Amino acid sequence: MKIAVLCSGNGSNLQAIIDGVKSGYIPAExxxxxxxxxxxxxxxxxxxxxxxxxxxxxxxxxxxxxxxxEIMKNLKARGxxxxxxxxxxxxxxxxxxxxxxxxxxxxxxxxxxxxxGTHAIRDALKYGVKVTGVTVHFVDEELDNxxxxxxxxxxxxxxxxxxxxxxxxxxxxHKLYPEAIKLFAEGKLKIDGRRVxxx
Amino acid sequence: MKIAVLCSGNGSNLQAIIDGVKSGYIPAExxxxxxxxxxxxxxxxxxxxxxxxxxxxxxxxxxxxxxxxEIMKNLKARGxxxxxxxxxxxxxxxxxxxxxxxxxxxxxxxxxxxxxGTHAIRDALKYGVKVTGVTVHFVDEELDNxxxxxxxxxxxxxxxxxxxxxxxxxxxxHKLYPEAIKLFAEGKLKIDGRRVxxx
Lengths: 199, 199
Fold this sequence. Notes:
2 copies of one chain form a homodimer. The first copy, chain A, has 199 residues and is α/β, with parallel strands linked by helices. Chain A has one domain: Formyl transferase, N-terminal domain (Rossmann fold, 3-Layer(aba) Sandwich), CATH 3.40.50.170. Chain A has 6 helices and 9 strands, in the order βαβαβαβαβαββαββ. In chain A, helix 1 (12-22) packs parallel to helix 6. The longest helix of chain A is centred in the last third of the chain and has 24 residues, at 162-185. Chain A is globular, with a radius of gyration of 16 Å. The two termini of chain A are 18 Å apart.
């Protein structure tokens, strides 16, 4: 099982995945880390872990489709079975999603279908929910919409702000994402319409 | 603190509230149980608890507004401070909600804003979420929309069906609703826009 991790920033979920692979918890190899920003700290983490890195700038390509094709070319060259989005701030092209159908996963800092989009933590606090959480899901053509693999609830505290809540959500992400990748790598996930069963 | 409980059916949440009042956990008196169905088992529970009962049929009234006015007349006559919806299958009129602004609460078998509406359990299973739950919230003009008082997550199991999941959700409801009513009765809830703070 070979996985690629796509990042744009700090890469704390990438780190959790690197650690999970190193310890043997995730029975897979990280074949490639891709960043769409050359200064992403995720690339430093990848280098320190001795993982192959690819940094691309959208500005160097004629279109989003060309950009995604360059990534796909590299995924194929390295025999990638699973694409893991870890703070990757770019939408994948329909062609990419078709090509890697049921093999792209994402993590979202809310209990989907609540609080889709890029401000999930802020939106949850604004709405005034008392429970939010983390969702790992397969990626389909719609934003934050694909079949749910794992979810974990996180209670919101009376004195929470964006920072404190984000910290607790991240802590759960760093456990949940390796768990989901482990299940995928072990062939234990079966997609049945919108539902993901564990086998 | 006098509360009215509005029901349409079995009244298992009513029972949890009756028990909470009897044990002294909820520092309030149930002044009135209203049912819009004369054969609702909730009325039997109320009778057995020695609680004043009012059963009304919408068919006996010219309009929904008249029906709600009859209920409001009774709430006023009995000095009700808090209106608790417990499986009440009827939408309250805008006039009712204005009159009892910030004093009507509801319980919903999902983690709002996910799965609004009358099929929350079924919709959660269909969507394939791994975590759902229970929400107690103030009632405003929009369906399942008002400020959230309490929420509790319920994990969905691999082999859950509507019946098994509903049972576990109900179990949490019967704890969460008395807790929310207790907090209200103790004057500990403060609504600040969409957020409900505990004092």
